[in-house]
Amino acid sequence: MGAVVLDDAGRLLLVRRRNAPGRGLWSVPGGRVEPGESLPAAVAREVREETGLTVRVGEEVGRLTIPGDGVVYDVADFACTLVDPGARPVPGDDADAVVFADAAALQRLDCTPRLLETLRGWGALPG
Fold it and tell me: Domain Nudix hydrolase: where (predicted)?
């Protein structure tokens, strides 16, 4: 699962992945659901672990399946709002960098495969 977080300026929160899959590529914060954890709780935990930010998890914005090495990932992304809009993100956990990116910056970043295309199709990208 993943978090689609926009700041007050309409920029998308992205993390650069420290580990495989997608090491070195930019993506929305997210990860695995722990046993007994709800999807919203997992989304909030992953955002906090990867960026230090606290979010309120809203509605699902989209879902897709991603084939992996011997597995298939069922990914649900959720719209999230920042609890403290003035807080600054700090990379942590499996992120080696974090940024809020506007539409122009998104075009320059090396993102995970189909990220921008998928988010655009869901209407979840910054203007």
Answer: 1-124
β-partners of residue 73 are 66
What is the distance, to the nearest Å, from the Cα of residue 32 to the centroid of all Cα atoms in its chain? 12
CA dist., res. 73 & res. 92, Å (int): 23
Where do the domains of the chain lie, and which CATH numbers do they carry?
2-114 (3.90.79.10)
User: Residues with Cβ < 8 Å from 88, sequence gap 6 or more?
Assistant: none
- What are the DSSP E strand ranges found in 37-126? 55-67, 72-82, 95-101
pLDDT, tens digit, for every residue of 65-106? 888 788 888 899 999 999 999 999 999 988 999 999 999 999
Cα dist. 13→22, 26, 43 in Å?
17, 10, 13
